[in-house]
User: Fold these one by one.
Assistant:
Number 1:
Amino acid sequence: MSEYSRPPADMPASEIIESWLPRAFEAAPRRPPPDSPSVRVTLSGPGGGTWDVCVSDEALSVKRRELGAQHSRPNPEDDPDVLLRQSVADFLALLRDDPDLPALLPPDTDVTDVLCVDEGRISLLAQIDGRISFEIEGRRRRRWAIDVAFGQSGMRAGRPRSTVRVDNRTCAELSSGALAPLQALLSGRLQVEGDRALVMQVVMLAGSVRNSR
């Protein structure tokens, strides 16, 4: 594990995105393909905001979107490839311990492993077009959630087309690699509402990430 495996525990979300991530990317030994997807991150709550993150062979660039730009009329030419929405607290839980949640990012995974996607995963991602939400039921009524949109249909969708819910134990087994995402889906340990075909596409993408490490 490198010194940039995880950000400092007291670092706010905005500093992680705007400063720490670019430094971690610069120090990473791997370089991504030139057609890596662009990502827009929207975090709600105190310390939140919206950022456009673009990866190139040379650097990771981050641009914070002003409040007026966030609420302006959608322009398809301005759309990212992937849009992530969640609370500041749930974003931080990805990168540090939360006593009521399992490890969401596997302990043997650097953050830069997620940023430096390979050609195969880019191809899988390009086939996904829709909006999906994931929810984890933790301990003591802790609920972690993320809302992800892919492609033009996902960006224009008013709400997720699919919702996937998973319990604490299943999430821990997925994170550790003891349970494969496709196996969890087929065995019913992932509770699915809505478009199962969209869920299958995202699960295949998640499985390719795990298998590549």
Number 2:
Amino acid sequence: MRARIFADEYRKWWTLGALSFALFMIMLDNTIVNVALPAIKSDLGIGTSELEWVVTAYALTFAVLLLTGGKLGDLYGRRLIFTIGLVVFTLSSLACGLSSSATELIGARAVQGVGSALMMPATLSIISATFAARERGTAIGIWAGVSAMALAIGPLLGGVITEHISWNWIFYVNVPIGVLGVVASIVVVPESRDTSHEQRLDLPGLLTSGIGLLALVYALIEAHSFGWTSARILSLFVIAAIALAAFVYVEMHQRLPMLDLTLFRDGTFTGANIVAILVTLAMFGIFVFFPIYMQTFLHWSPIQSGAALLPWTILIVIFAPIAGRLSDRVGSRWLMAGGMTTVALCCLELSTVSVNSGFWRMLPGFILGGLGMAFVMTPMSAAVMGAAPVDKAGVASGVLNTFRQVGVALGIAITGAIITNREAAAARAGADPPHAFVHGLTFGMRVSALICLGAAVAAAVLVRKYRHAEQAQPLAEAA
């Protein structure tokens, strides 16, 4: 009996390791591309809006299908869906590397997002079902730390690969990692599913949410090209509003909805998801547009611009697990509120850069950003999973990561729209290209600071202490 308990304890940490390994690859693709964007633009001869779509196509399909991915895991088995997603992600990564046009690359990136959407909710739901409540915060802290580290280290790794090999290899490296991940998932990850009641897919919910988000993001990205008051852009905003309203209506009246709106009756669940969408919305303005600023106007190399973001990596690696343990003891409320306030200070600090700013001028902002994200991401994840029943772990993790990925897509689209609009206004006033771009960038950072302060208020007002009524049983006993 004692040997069995020891084996179960040993296996659950191997499970966490295998899931974290695959998670690192998923989240890396959110940021590894950013530093390579100037090289991709030059090599493929594409415009700015197409360049934004290279990043956004991945985030958008990721966001739209995450809830479906969580439901599929609950229905057919989380390990099975995780493994299928990993195969899709690996093959589409190969297609990205082989792309010779913007259309091919954007299409392959969209398929990558499909694979990630199948994988991501399974990682968090397997962790929640594998670890007992007393250990769940620590496990989620490691999970969130790996996720945040991948986001932060992506620019540096992308810079090294782009400068010394080629941008294609930022995708090729996923192939051997993906193969190893498939083997690891089969060998060490236990199977689980939600058997509590009838399960089925919600196709009307998937369709309405997909149309709404696609129309909204497309309108934001292409508004500068067609004009904010053009019939095309206004029509897209109307379609987005109708489709998203229809999504809410459908989910409220579906017998088995994709998005269980009853989860949002819990203030902690609602507040943590609001923070999730707002923190990623604010941060991806930095992750996407600061590397472009560094390489285009400061004339840094890809490695230099990637290395400049290393403080994010170091601080997240150090403090994300600590934040996880603290959330177990004191809850997530004030950790999230303090973290979002720190991220707001990061955005304000970065809003003071100029066309001549160097690394040391930007370092305080990067330090604040790393600290803030570390103390937001882990407690945020713990709060969402702690506020939801374990048998809803797949749906809850799908909601959390949907909000995060919607934040990524909207962050790129909104920040890009702000920068483009303010840049054009400055150019009309007589500013040269570098000063016009920096004017738009700094204005965007001030808007991001206000968004982060709003998220801090949401955390302080809505999030409360949480505790699962049940203790999760190790999956090895049920496998």
Number 3:
Amino acid sequence: MQENFLCGTSEITGCRFSIYPMTDRFADVILSALKEVDTSKVWMETDDVSTCVRGRSIHVFDVVKAIYLEAVKHGDHVVFNGTFSNGCPGDSAGDAYLAENEERANEESAAGNSQEVAVQFALYPMGIPDYMNVIMDQVELAKKGTFTKGVHYASRLDGDAHAVFKTLEDAFENCKKSDSTHIVMTVNMSANSPSKKGTE
């Protein structure tokens, strides 16, 4: 029996991500970051491969940023690999969280964590023939902030994590305002990399 899935039927935004701390304390770093962040405004589930956060877009970005900043605050090299999505067919289990207000639960606590990061991200506005125009509009906006350069299959951002996450969130939200019915954004982020210090 074939199910008929349609994009654009839900306002839920989700992010499935994995964090990779380059330390033998990796389990403690990950579990501590997940524990310290206020996740009361999102649906969240963690398994042995990744963590999934779902709810209103504003709260998904708030939680994901806060978790990453917690993971990197001790100075370890930590890599984040995540996929953000909006309009995914079949989203339903997190509907209750859409009623949450717009106050970011972690904004105040995360504000004190300053961290330089390097990011490669890619946008995929699905279901529209002029998707490249939507992508390039966001690249042009990013050039006014944390955009560094284009790389194969992605765009690079560098700077403070708060500014970089704002660029990512703005790009994602602007894509949601387009005619695309399903937005996907992939993000690879690195902090405290030894290569930034000139070592191999």
